[in-house]
Design a protein that fits this description.
The protein is 29% helix and 0% strand. It is elongated and about 75 Å long. The protein is built from 2 helices and no strands. The mean pLDDT is 84. The chain has a domain of 32 residues. It is an all-alpha fold. 5% of the residues are buried.
Length: 63
């Protein structure tokens, strides 16, 4: 017989998960996680952005 693996705890505080707030245990832990994303504590790796591409002035049509 195979048993279900133990449910992972809340990634913020380690308490048991609440199905209403999965994967967290509470609204508070959800908000802490969101704050971390908004402050830039979490990053998703990607290609570096060229500084020249961002600062290029818009081109104007020639007469």
């Amino acid at each position: 017989m195979s048993e279900k693996p133990a449910a992972k705890p809340c990634p913020i505080c380690g308490k048991p998960r609440d199905p209403k707030h999965t994967p967290f245990c509470s609204r508070r832990c959800q908000d802490i996680d969101l704050g971390r994303w908004l402050k830039g504590n979490y990053v998703i790796p990607g290609q570096p952005v060229e500084a020249d591409d961002e600062e290029a002035p818009p081109t104007q049509p020639r007469d």
